[in-house]
Design brief:
- This protein has 455 residues and is α/β, with parallel strands linked by helices.
- 32% of the residues lie in helices and 24% in strands.
- The chain is built from 13 helices and 21 strands.
- Strands 1, 2, 3, 4, 5, 6 and 16 form a seven-stranded mixed sheet that branches.
- Helix 3 packs across helix 6.
- The protein binds flavin-adenine dinucleotide.
- The site of flavin-adenine dinucleotide has 35 residues, from helix 1, strand 2, helix 2, helix 3 and strand 4.
Length: 455
């Protein structure tokens, strides 16, 4: 049987574009369809615009901090429309690089929605035509989920937060995950009054408890209202104002409510059910180690498989899919010691086991912790302290986890991930000479095991 293409990729985000570009570069006859904008969530309405917003927000604090270093800053003001316009221009540039990269490698780029008709056929919705392929790779990502409460249509999600006509005056952000926490910091830094509502007991479930606790305290001290164990029950609109009724009987007035209450895989309407592609409870495509779904010619990578929903993982999936299927090198993506960050203010950088996980999995665990005021915060008068924590296997001396809250934490976590993957021991950290004066030197100068106060 002959096909129009060897590989048809649905979704022009991080995972799909990487797979399509690599395949085309190998001479595989490849096409990729994107229904919205090339670059996907990460470039268009995720990591990239978010980080640009974080920079904008932090610069406001930096102007205040400069005073302690002798600068006189007058006439500080912020223009939301300038930020949006400059961000959009940068995203347009990146989006073109994504589609251009596939084209340059020899792939066919299609701007259309694609749906599956059968195990080898795709329907292009706007173009009203079908194409066939030996293999189909689904890389359609995910979308924000809003809970089903009265007035939910009055809320926005991170998608809309990147395009608001004007900066809110008072925003309620619902959720306790990294997106909620990051946007709370962004809006607060831009001068917006922020209240974070989270149904759980403490924000950032799954992160080390010291990070969670210290960040919550810091956010509160900065003036962000962090309210846990509650969530919106209903939202009402009167004029320009919204009233959020909470499950604890509270009424909060605001002009914007943003839901960061999880994401769902983009599989609705793709034609998966009719084909018998096995999906999970939330629609995620179930795949094996080689990204193959229950239908042998259909594969999936990235957020649509809802495993670890991060850009570098989607990209690694795309690479591993190509290696396994076109280079005879089947090797599943190795996610051990995956570093992650939360671009909160101050930011979090973390890699490896949390203290809680390590205590469950290892017989003896030693903890090393340091809390200190970073040098930059002395003259600026900023009271925030930095937290560094190492989780060590008492038996082997291997460093199992490193957790940092403070400036440049994410940059440190990226490099720490290399050491932890190599099996670095606490003794290796101790033997490494400090780089002075830095905050990171604390990582190699912590000598005292942390003892809980009760022992
Ligand atoms: C606000 C926010 C901040 C984030 N920050 C970070 C971060 O700091 N670091 C990090 O690592 N990750 C971050 N992420 C997660 C990251 O963006 C995703 O993990 C990553 O983009 C997943 O890549 P993907 O290729 O699986 O899917 P996506 O990038 O979502 O791409 C899927 C593409 O498929 C298209 N599509 C969907 N259905 C069809 C169809 N039927 N036909 C054609 N096209 C279709 C979509 O339009 C989309 O462009 C963030 C996400 C959000 C929402």
């Amino acid at each position: 049987m002959t096909f129009d293409y060897d590989l048809f990729v649905i979704g022009g985000g991080s995972g799909g574009v990487r797979a399509a570009r690599l395949a085309a570069g190998l001479g595989v006859r490849t096409a990729i369809a994107e229904e919205y904008r090339f670059g996907g969530t990460c470039v268009i309405r995720g990591c990239v615009p978010k980080k640009l917003f974080v920079y904008a927000s932090e610069l406001g604090h930096a102007i205040d901090d400069a005073r302690g270093f002798g600068w006189t800053v007058t006439g500080k003001s912020f223009d939301w429309k300038t930020l949006i316009a400059n961000k959009d221009a940068e995203i347009e540039r990146l989006s073109k690089l994504y589609s251009g990269g596939v084209r340059a490698a020899g792939g066919t780029v299609i701007l259309d929605r694609a749906e599956l008709l059968d195990a080898h056929t795709v329907r292009l919705v706007k173009e009203r035509r079908t194409v066939t392929a030996e293999r189909i790779l689904i890389a359609t990502g995910g979308h924000p989920f809003i809970p089903d409460i009265p007035g939910r249509e009055l809320g926005i999600t991170s998608n809309e937060a990147f395009h608001l006509d004007k900066l809110p005056e008072r925003i309620v952000i619902v959720g306790g995950g990294y997106i909620a926490v990051e946007f709370a910091g962004i809006f607060h830094g831009l001068g917006v009054e922020v209240e974070l509502l989270y149904r759980g007991g403490e924000i950032l479930r799954g992160f080390d408890h010291d990070l969670r606790h210290t960040l919550t305290e810091t956010m509160r001290a900065q003036g962000i209202a962090v309210t846990c164990n509650t969530e919106p029950a209903a939202i009402e609109k009167t004029g320009d104002r919204l009233t959020v009724m909470t499950t604890r009987g509270g009424h909060i007035s605001c002009d914007t409510i943003m839901f960061a209450t999880g994401r769902r895989p983009n599989t609705v309407g793709l034609g998966l059910q009719k084909l018998g592609v096995k999906c999970g409870w939330n629609g995620r495509i179930m795949v094996d180690d080689w990204y193959r779904s229950s239908i042998p010619s259909i594969y999936a990578v990235g957020d649509v498989t809802d495993r670890v929903n991060l850009t570098p993982v989607a990209i690694r999936d795309g690479v591993a899919f190509i290696e396994a299927n076109y280079k005879n090198n089947p090797k599943p993506a190795d996610l051990a010691f995956l570093p992650t960050a939360v671009f909160s203010q101050p930011e979090i950088g973390t890699v490896g086991y949390t203290e809680e996980q390590a205590r469950e999995m290892f017989r003896g665990v030693d903890i090393y912790k340091s809390r200190f005021r970073p040098m930059k915060n002395t003259l600026s008068g900023r009271p925030e302290r930095m937290l560094m924590k190492l989780v060590v296997d008492a038996e082997s001396d291997k460093v199992l986890g490193a957790h940092i809250l403070g400036p440049d934490a994410a940059e440190m976590a990226q490099l720490l991930a290399v050491s932890l993957r190599l099996g670095a021991r606490k003794a290796d950290f101790d033997a490494t000479i400090a780089l002075h004066p830095t905050a990171a030197e604390e990582l190699v100068t912590m000598r005292e095991k942390w003892q809980p106060l009760s022992t």
